[in-house]
Amino acid sequence: MTSKASAPDTPRHPMLDEPPLSLRERKKRRTREAIRREAYRLFRDQGFDETTVEEIAEAAEVSPSTFFRYFPTKEDVVLTDEYDPLIIKLMREGPADATFIEMLRGAVLGPLRVLMEAEREEMVIRMQLMVSVPSLRKRSQLQQTEGWRMLSEAFAERTGKDPADPRLRYAAAAIGSALNEAMLSWAEDGCEGSPADRMEEALDFVETGLRTF
Question: pTM for this one?
Answer without folding.
Answer: 0.75
